């Protein structure tokens, strides 16, 4: 039931985005003009000049759809790469792979509805959904529970921890090293204080013994 509800919400979000932007020619012109070479190749028309917009509406929408498809499918790859560099390579792989496939599927659906702007909206939405699914899948396969830092593989490269378990282990090792250093610095102080206390106890015991002896001698 939750999956069906989420799917309906995603479709409503997609329709709302299309309604707000609409398959207007100026939106497709903007997409076409951002990367005219890519758009021209996608539309199959020669470039008349940098940023030139074709007169044919079909060529315009096809070229705009090509640009939108290119951008929406590459965005998850960038997101996954940044996630991997940020210390989550397993999740980053899922974000990149799932997002790329989701963006392609979403862009295809958007193109069928409204080439150009629909392609962009569908690709972005599909990439977002696919990236989340892919990230969950790769983490699940690796046995990673984001709520438990002790799960997942022990993955490190050149001493740099990459998985959450490796990071947790590294943190505990550092904490242990600091605690050992702290103990080594405090141990002499504790030993000195213990020796002084033992000396005081011995003096007190000797004075008590002397008092008892004197009392036994002069108390008669």
How would you describe this structure to a colleague?
This protein is an all-alpha fold and 220 residues long. It is built from seven helices and two strands. The chain has helices at 2-21, 25-34, 36-43, 57-85, 89-113, 117-141, 164-218; strands spanning 156-157, 160-161. Helix 4 runs antiparallel to helix 5 (89-113) and helix 5 runs antiparallel to helix 6. Mean pLDDT is 79; it is low at 19-24.
How many domains, in number, for the residues? 2
Strand order of the largest sheet: 1-2
Q: How would you describe the oligomerization state of the chains in this entry? A: single chain
**Considering DSSP H and I runs of 4 or more, what fraction of the residues is helical?**
over 70%
Query: Which descriptor suits the 3D outline?
Result: rod-shaped
Q: Order of helices and strands, N to C?
A: HHHHHHEEH
List the helices and strands and how they pair.
Blueprint: H1 2-21, H2 25-34, H3 36-43, H4 57-85, H5 89-113, H6 117-141, E1 156-157, E2 160-161, H7 164-218
Antiparallel strand pairs: 1-2
Helix pairs in contact: 1-6, 2-3, 2-4, 3-4, 4-5, 4-6, 5-6
Keywords:
mainly alpha, 2% strand, 78% helix
Describe this structure in a few short sentences.
The chain is an all-alpha fold. Helices cover 78% and strands 2% of the residues.
């Amino acid at each position: 039931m939750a999956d069906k509800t989420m799917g309906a919400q995603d479709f409503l979000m997609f329709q709302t985005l299309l309604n707000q932007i609409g398959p207007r020619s100026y939106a497709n012109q903007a997409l076409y003009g951002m990367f005219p070479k890519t758009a021209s190749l996608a539309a199959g028309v020669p470039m008349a000049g940098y940023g030139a917009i074709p007169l044919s509406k079909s060529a315009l929408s096809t070229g705009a759809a090509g640009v939108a498809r290119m951008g929406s499918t590459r965005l998850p790859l960038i997101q996954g790469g940044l996630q991997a560099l940020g210390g989550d390579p397993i999740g980053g792989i899922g974000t990149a792979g799932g997002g790329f496939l989701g963006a392609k599927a979403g862009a295809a659906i958007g193109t069928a509805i409204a080439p150009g702007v629909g392609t962009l909206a569908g690709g972005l939405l599909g990439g977002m959904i696919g990236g989340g699914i892919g990230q969950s899948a790769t983490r699940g396969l690796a046995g990673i529970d984001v709520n438990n830092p002790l799960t997942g593989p022990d993955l490190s490269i050149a001493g740099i921890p990459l998985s959450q378990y490796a990071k947790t282990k590294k943190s505990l090792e550092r904490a242990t090293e600091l605690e050992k250093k702290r103990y080594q610095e405090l141990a002499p102080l504790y030993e000195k204080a213990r020796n002084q206390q033992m000396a005081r106890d011995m003096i007190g015991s000797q004075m008590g013994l002397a008092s008892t002896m004197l009392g036994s001698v002069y108390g008669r």
